[in-house]
Amino acid sequence: MKKKAASSGGSKGRRTQQVEDRKERRFEPIRSKVATLTLIGTGLGGLALGIGIYAQWLAVHRLPYAPWIVAGGAAVLAAVILWGQLAGAAVRVGDAGLAVERGDSAPLRVAWCEIDSIAFQDGQAVVETKDAKITLRLDEHPAAVAWLVKEARARIPSKVKIAEAQMASLPKASESDGVVVAVEATQVTGRRCRASGKIITFERDARLCARCGEIYHVEALPERCLTCDAPMGDEGD
Ligand SMILES: [Zn+2]
After folding, report:
1. What single-letter DSSP state applies at residue 166?
2. In terms of domains, do 141 and 222 share one?
């Protein structure tokens, strides 16, 4: 029985996880109408401005209505700047908490154990930690918001500040939402064990609370997670 606990490869009943065993769901943003209009407006406005400038000042035969094309293109671009909205980033929700992708650089990640509160206001989920505030728009990330709230209620229920009435207005999480992926390597070396304060030197020594993501040195695993009180240890499942 002991042998099983030492073997690698995550199983559902595990209460601690090794770094490489973690999974999460990845969600692409839904482009809102405003974001689509912004994209189209930028293209058309830029095109009109270019054509207008060419027709007014560069073309051999100047078009009489060229100034109107320039003005029209400029007006569209001004509207885009004033009211436009860019499509958001893809996000991930799972064992490692919440992650917001940032193009080529590593995603912005907050572990469940770092989250101080999750609220819902003005059509967006608001996640606050000691030093970050992340918002997810419901119209852009309905499934991600549903999963964020579902997982948070299971993992860190005391941090979820959403009234029942608001909860009813949120979409329900479905197994078919998003794409399940492995959590990309996250930095655990150099971090401190929550129980002993010892710095984790080797990734293989790190054990993460399967519920809240708190980090422990394998030799200092407590009976229960010091952050979320989940039972720890690999036996008995
Ligand atoms: Zn925990």
Report:
1. H
2. no
Is residue 177 located within the same domain as residue 194? no
- Decide: pTM greater than 0.85: no
> Are 104 and 161 part of one and the same domain?
yes
113: number of Cβ within 10 Å: 22
CA of 209 relative to ligand 1 center, distance in Å: 5
User: From the CA of 22, how far away is ligand 1's center (Å)?
Assistant: 14
- Distance (angstroms) between ligand 1 centre and the Cα of 155 equals 8
Q: Is the torsion defined by CA of 148, 149, 155, 160 positive or negative?
A: positive
Q: Which domain holds residue 169?
A: 23-30+89-182
Same domain? 177 vs 127: yes
76 pLDDT above the threshold of 80 = yes
Which residues, at least 6 apart from 102, have a Cβ–Cβ distance to it below 8 Å?
Answer: 89, 108
Q: What is the pLDDT of residue 64?
A: 85
* pLDDT of 26 over the 90 cut: yes
pLDDT of residue 1: 42
Give burial (CB, 10 Å; 0-12/13-18/19+) of 56.
middle
Instruction: Tell whether the model's pLDDT for residue 2 goes beyond 60.
Output: no
Residue 149 sits in a domain of what CATH number? 2.30.29
Average the pLDDT over 48-73 and give the result.
Answer: 87
Do 172 and 145 share a structural domain?
Answer: yes
